[in-house]
Write a structure and sequence with these properties.
The chain is mainly alpha-helical and 49 residues long. The chain has 1 helix and no strands. The protein is elongated and about 45 Å long.
Length: 49
């Protein structure tokens, strides 16, 4: 069960409708920062063990 291209396109359209094209870069930037912080937290936890 993977994510197909059609599912990805549907999600992108919904995101565009909810946030609008003007806010989309800011939302994606915040999402990227959150993912980066999450990965760094996982690395820090691995070092502490």
């Amino acid at each position: 069960m993977g994510v197909s291209l059609s599912h990805l396109l549907i999600v992108m359209v919904i995101v565009l409708i909810l946030f609008g094209a003007g806010k989309l870069p800011k939302v994606m930037n915040d999402l990227a920062k959150g993912i980066k912080a999450f990965k760094e937290g996982l690395k820090d936890e691995d070092k502490n063990e």
